[in-house]
Design a protein that fits this description.
Oligomer: heterodimer
Number of helices of chain B: 0
Largest sheet of chain B: 7 strands, mixed
Helix content of chain B: under 10%
Strand content of chain A: over 45%
Order of helices and strands of chain B: EEEEEEEEEEE
Radius of gyration of chain B: 14 Å
Structural class of chain A: mainly beta
Structural class of chain B: mainly beta
Largest sheet of chain A: 6 strands, mixed
Order of helices and strands of chain A: EEEEEEEEEEE
Number of strands of chain B: 11
Largest interface: A-B, 24 and 28 residues
Radius of gyration of chain A: 13 Å
């Protein structure tokens, strides 16, 4: 299957802690993206990292990409209760299609 | 801001009914997608369209069809709904320009087939 794999499947932390989620894939990619989904809602694009980039920051988000290991990680620093959501990685499947991972469910407790 | 709307947030239908799920985007995007999302399985692509009247099968097209008569509207059709089509359905449109390569999602339709 081309589907990306994410781990952990679920993560539970306290407010203020950092949250790290990992994504692995099997094909060559042009870029890798991370999306967030609040419970029962649509996905929202968070950040995109291109295959020639190794690290990218956006606010409290830090994404790394290791194309030799075909893996990426998303770090959320100083987590807040409002960060509670599911997080998905996605990578190109051709025709502007995206292949999504199964997601990591993050719970941030006050 | 890009806006993608879906016709219903919640829908309950009976087995054998024909079901229409509508999706509209307001940013003149050429590419549009329909996914279904089930617990533990992530998002699975049903169909996509890269232009008006064009459609391509995704990973799980069986039991579904689509229609794209206008650029802004992409419809998913369940010809004869079955209980295994109970799921969350997500529509997305895709922007590829400059440094952007992003899918914009609608709020989703939670379909229950009884």
């Amino acid at each position: 299957s081309q589907q990306g794999e994410e781990d952990p499947q679920a993560l539970s932390i306290q407010e203020g802690e950092n949250a790290t989620m990992n994504c692995s894939y099997k094909t060559s990619i042009n870029n890798l993206q991370w999306y967030r989904q609040n419970s029962g809602r649509g996905l929202v694009h968070l950040i995109l990292i291109r295959s020639n980039e190794r690290e990218k920051h956006s606010g409290r988000l830090r994404v790394t990409l290791d194309t030799s290991k075909k893996s990426s990680s998303l770090l959320i620093t100083a987590s807040r209760a409002a960060d509670t959501a599911s997080y998905f990685c996605a990578f190109s499947g051709g025709y502007n299609k995206l292949i999504f991972g199964a997601g990591t469910r993050l719970a941030v407790h006050p | 801001d890009v806006k993608v709307t879906q016709s219903s947030r919640y829908l309950v239908k009976r087995t054998g009914e024909k079901v229409f799920l509508e999706c509209v985007q307001d940013m003149d995007h050429e590419n549009m997608f329909w996914y279904r999302q089930d617990p533990g399985l992530g998002l699975r692509l049903i169909y996509f369209s890269y232009d008006v009247k064009m459609k391509e099968k995704g990973d799980i097209p069986e039991g579904y069809s689509v229609s794209r008569e206008k650029k802004e509207r992409f419809s998913l059709i369940l010809e004869s709904a079955s209980t295994n089509q109970t799921s969350m359905y997500l529509c997305a449109s895709h922007e590829t320009s400059g440094n952007t390569d992003t899918q914009y999602f609608g709020p989703g339709t939670r379909l229950t087939v009884l």
